[in-house]
Request: fold
Amino acid sequence: MSSSGAADPIASEGVQPAEALCLPDNDWLQHRLTIRGPVAELAPVRAAAAGAGVIPWQLDFEQLRENWFHRLMAIPSRTLSASGARILAQQLREASERRHVLAVAQVGRSRACPFDLHALSPVPKSVLALGPDHPQALAWLWQHWGTTQALRHVVVLAEPYGPEAVGPGRRCCGSASGRRTGHRGGRWRRWQPTGRSCASRSARFTTRRHEG
Reply:
């Protein structure tokens, strides 16, 4: 049980749900993020950014089961009976819950994702309890992450480079380094909150979006 004196991360920051941009159909576009700075400063950023790549939402699986049932029943050309739709909805619920439990168990343990927004700027428990579709949860993500969904297919495109890896046309001082990652993010993604989360005092970041 939370303390009565604990600040509400939503109310205290004045997050407005209407400000969050979350379209019903997301275009997952390729983004490339480069973080540059002194070697000593980039190492902790690199370590802090690695995580499971999962947002540990608290989901209402019973409500999801009901939603799936009604969607199945609403199919115009459905061949399932009502009892069949109930059975299938229950199977979907069980499979979804198993997958979610396994994924959430990796949070705080796995470092498979090299750029995990939840590792950099963890979603508060009070926000996680609202669920991924709640307007206030979406507003929190938009304000702190600049997106309303976790990044997908995050990979390292280039390992840290220094003076020994400088190629033609690139200049790099002996104390500087950089790292480049690629991932899929929403078309409406904004990077300012991400920069505040991942940049150390001396690190700088740049991003490029690739259509298609």
Summary: The longest helix spans residues 82-104.
